[in-house]
Design brief:
It holds the Pfam family PAF-AH_p_II. By secondary structure, this protein is of the alpha/beta class. The chain folds into 2 domains: 105 residues; 382 residues, Rossmann fold. The protein is built from 15 helices and 12 strands.
Length: 503
């Protein structure tokens, strides 16, 4: 919550209190002075913080109080003949609207992204890449080639000017899916343009190291690269080049340099079906392979950038959330990739396929782990449980069969993967793995995020992600991967439950 918008709300509450408590003949001067102070707070808020629709009523009330007090100074008999009932109704409505404003400020906070914990400043740059070897299959009308927007975060030499915004004003904000999901106008989320990131556009790459390992980051289905900015910034601050892909037509909005906006075209209902999921998944995996191809050209100087020779292509990581986690696992079969992480993502293209022997870490939410663990334990759901879940026994049977095939990969990782780990985080749910968790506490109340504090959730994911990549891309100790740590009691290691050697 920002200082001046909080002061504005308090000032309006004070104005209303003075109006109600002071006698008519004694409140003219105090209300005039208080109205002037409130207007000054509004002006500072407007200039320093920016207006937003959540505070519309305090804006209106400030003007009305000032206008009324000025009018009352010139005409002392003003408002004396207004019926008491009308005044009482106006006071009640004002009190209700100010209470509603406080609720809106709580529900839609102007939050701060987590501060990167590394020694480096962070730079960012966006690339538009076109894969001339692939047709775009999700936009059949245009019959073009596959286009991607890729944002990179990297260790920066200097940090000059203002940091880049978390979300720029424009098409992305208009397509932001949370408002549509929760059923309110998109203008409600327009304040996200005020939230700064911790990275600086076009900053010069740091010279503290000759080169930096590359990590490919993949967002979830119907999400966006912007919702993983804090994870990318944290890794970049510790000496990694992080490339986050907007998987076109499976992200809620991808804006190209010429102003075109590609919105969701893949089917969010069919994505649960194996064949369609595998088809979309292959496109995502091919996106990752293509981006790796482009970074080879960037590093060699064939694509001219400041990153020539600065990327350590012998140490490449990949990670992602949800469908992006599945894409990261599928991409780990690529010989160029060293290690990967799946953040609470179910797999695709996993049937009748052996697991990867590369270091791979699965981090689950509590409910995802519970679902897989019940399958592992051959749990038989009661009729009452099925009713609560809103599922039929046939649906559970199908889901169980698919889950068993996924568990086979977890078992393979636990028993044969070199340095692989499987864990879950207590009180975390699916959207605690992305920056969307900071947008509104409403997500917690409807179960999309868990009871854990979002800042705590982010610190856990950032710590374990960093430890894993430090171990496998930089040959550091990776202490957090050794087992339970008293600093993170929420993290539960469950490798032994899936290890075939311990049956």
């Amino acid at each position: 919550m920002r200082l001046f918008e909080l002061l504005l709300l308090i000032s309006n509450i004070g104005l209303l209190g003075l109006t109600v408590l002071l006698k008519k003949e004694r409140r003219r001067v105090p209300i005039f002075i208080a109205s002037g102070i409130t207007l000054l707070v509004l002006a500072i808020h407007w200039k320093v913080e920016g207006l937003r629709v959540q505070l519309l009523f305090p804006y209106v009330l400030t003007i009305l109080f000032l206008a009324g007090s000025i009018y009352g100074c010139f005409k002392k008999t003003a408002f004396r003949h207004i019926p008491r009932f009308i005044l009482g109704l106006a006071y009640t409505v004002s009190a209700v609207m100010l209470t509603l404003t406080a609720c809106l400020m709580y529900a839609f906070p102007v939050f701060q992204l987590p501060e990167p914990t590394g020694e480096h400043k962070v730079g960012t740059q966006i690339f538009h890449l076109v894969d001339k070897g692939r047709d775009e299959i999700f936009d059949e009308k245009k019959k073009g080639k596959r286009e991607l927007m890729v944002q990179i975060w990297y260790p920066a030499k200097h940090a000059n000017g203002q940091p880049a915004p978390f979300i720029e004003e424009g098409p992305v904000l208009k397509e932001e899916p949370l408002s549509k999901t929760l059923g309110f106008p998109s203008i409600v989320m327009n304040y996200l343009k005020y939230i700064p990131s911790h990275s600086y556009g076009g900053a010069e790459v740091s010279t503290k190291s000759r080169s930096y390992p590359l990590i490919i980051l993949n967002h979830g289905y119907k999400s966006s690269r912007i919702y993983h900015a804090s994870q990318a910034e944290n890794l970049a601050s510790h000496g990694y080049i992080v490339a986050s892909i907007d998987h076109t037509y499976s992200a809620f909005a991808t804006v190209f340099p010429d102003g075109r906006t590609a919105t969701m075209k893949t089917d969010e209902y069919l994505i649960a079906e194996k064949d369609y999921r595998n088809m979309v998944g292959k496109v995502w995996t091919d996106d990752i392979a293509f981006v790796l191809d482009q970074f080879e050209l960037i590093n060699s100087g064939q694509i001219r950038t400041q990153f020539k020779g600065r990327i350590d292509l012998d140490h490449i990581g990949v990670f992602g959330h949800s469908f992006g986690g599945a894409a990261s696992y599928d991409a780990s079969y690529d010989g160029r990739i060293t290690a990967g992480i799946d953040l609470d993502g179910g797999l695709y293209r996993y049937h009748n396929r052996p697991g990867t022997t590369k270091p791979f870490m699965f981090i689950f939410s509590e409910s995802t782990f519970d679902r897989f663990n019940k399958v592992r334990q051959h749990h038989v759901y009661t009729d009452e449980e099925l009713k609560t879940m809103g599922a039929t026994r046939e649906e559970i049977k199908k889901e169980t069969k698919d889950a068993e095939a996924e568990i086979a990969h977890f078992r393979y990782a636990a028993s044969r993967g070199r340095g692989s780990r499987i864990l879950y985080v207590k009180d975390m749910e699916h959207y605690n793995f992305a920056d969307v968790q900071f947008l509104t506490p409403i997500l917690r109340h409807i179960g999309l995020t868990g009871q854990i504090d979002p800042s705590r959730a982010a610190s856990i994911i950032n710590a374990y992600t960093l430890s894993f990549f430090d171990k496998h891309l930089k040959n550091k100790d990776g202490r957090l991967l050794e087992g339970p740590d008293e600093k993170f009691p929420e993290v539960k290691f469950v490798d032994s439950l899936f290890d075939e050697r311990k049956k």
